[in-house]
């Protein structure tokens, strides 16, 4: 592995908080871990859209079912002329369920780190909803976001954070994100999707699909590094590995080195042993009461919480 001096030089050569910086830091520390936000370049976003359509991946269709069933209830809580702020907007598919149900929604701010993908999705949405002010925001929503004041005539500001992306945070990060959202949405509310604790076999199947799309999504992080940073990863030397940790109540996703190898990370070489992993994602699962308790600590007041009949997934209305 790199000596400490070399590690410090490696991290110092690139801007802090950038993909290059965080990848270099991941390979310079033990255990190796990197934020899952770097999955979502355009290729990664497209792969995730495919994951959402897989038969094994229950979260998307289950959450969509809850939103469809409860759309009018949610609209009544939001009131007329609502402004919707979606964190980690992605393809903008789920927000259409709200836009169709809400009473004359006035403004939509989709926030995402993948600028090109967001621009395409926002353009399509403008075409479908010409009366809606669509204002995409390309930024890292995991950092504190300043939304400013809403335009005159706008109703309640409603945050939308579907997909159980909250589970990708550590418990402390989740608390920090929710506290920041509570401040940004003060006087409004947050509509939050959260995956629930369940049979580990269902979880294992969801993150190890038979078509290998999740594996391709995981490996795309290294492919993205090759494209954007000129790294020298050989993708066939890494394997996708995902498992459920029952004590931590989370899925862990890793890239496992198939052999002893030397990897080129941002112009520096680092040894990687056979079986050594790069930890790419956590996906925490919740109970309804556990999620509500975190929300209260962050400054929200819990409102209604809805689940599907099998209690696979939950959707929460949280007053800010």
What does this structure look like?
With 320 residues, the protein is of the alpha/beta class. It has a domain of 176 residues: Rossmann fold, CATH 3.40.50.150. The chain is 38% helix and 24% strand. The chain is built from 10 helices and 14 strands. The strands form 3 sheets. Strands 2, 3, 4, 5, 6, 7, 13 and 14 form an 8-stranded mixed β-sheet that branches. It has a 4-stranded mixed β-sheet with strand order 1-12-9-8. Helix 1 runs antiparallel to helix 2. The protein is globular.
Summarize the structure.
This protein is an alpha/beta fold and 320 residues long. It has ten helices and 14 strands. Helix 7 packs across helix 10.
Which range best describes the helical content: under 10%, 10-25%, 25-40%, 40-55%, 55-70% or over 70%? Answer: 25-40%
- Biggest sheet details: 8 strands, mixed
Low-confidence region ranges = 1-14
Element pattern in H and E: HHEHHEHEHEEEHEHHEEEEEHEE
Shape: globular
Question: Which structural class is indicated by helix and strand composition?
Answer: alpha/beta
Q: Give the CATH topology of the domain at 58-198 and 285-319.
A: Rossmann fold
């Amino acid at each position: 592995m790199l000596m400490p001096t070399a590690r410090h030089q490696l991290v110092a050569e690139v801007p802090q908080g950038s993909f290059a910086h965080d990848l270099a830091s991941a390979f310079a520390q033990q255990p190796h871990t990197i934020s899952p936000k770097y999955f979502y370049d355009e290729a990664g976003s497209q792969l995730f859209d495919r994951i959402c359509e897989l038969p094994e991946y229950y979260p998307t269709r289950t959450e969509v079912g809850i939103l469809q069933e409860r759309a009018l209830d949610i609209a009544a809580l939001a009131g007329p002329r609502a402004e919707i702020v979606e964190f980690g907007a992605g393809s903008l598919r789920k927000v259409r369920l709200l836009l169709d149900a809400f009473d004359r929604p006035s403004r939509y701010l989709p926030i995402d780190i993948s600028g090109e993908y967001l621009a395409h999705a926002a353009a399509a949405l403008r075409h479908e909803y010409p009366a809606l002010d669509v204002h995409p925001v390309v930024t890292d929503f995991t950092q504190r976001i300043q939304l400013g004041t809403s335009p005159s005539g706008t109703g309640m500001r409603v945050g939308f954070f579907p997909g159980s992306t909250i589970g990708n945070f550590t418990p402390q990060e989740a608390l920090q994100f929710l506290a920041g959202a509570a401040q940004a949405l003060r006087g409004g509310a947050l509509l939050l999707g959260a995956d629930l604790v369940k049979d580990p076999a269902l979880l294992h199947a969801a993150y190890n699909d038979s078509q290998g799309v999740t594996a391709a999504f995981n490996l795309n992080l290294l492919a993205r590094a090759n494209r954007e940073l000129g790294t020298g990863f050989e993708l066939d030397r890494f394997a996708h590995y995902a498992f459920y940790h029952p004590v931590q109540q989370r899925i862990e996703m890793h890239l496992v080195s198939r052999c002893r190898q030397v990897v080129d990370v941002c112009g520096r070489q680092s040894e990687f042993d056979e079986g050594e992993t790069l930890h790419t994602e956590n996906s925490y699962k919740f109970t309804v009461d556990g999620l509500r308790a975190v929300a209260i600590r962050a400054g929200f007041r819990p409102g209604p919480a809805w689940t599907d009949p099998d209690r696979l997934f939950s959707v929460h209305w949280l007053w800010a």
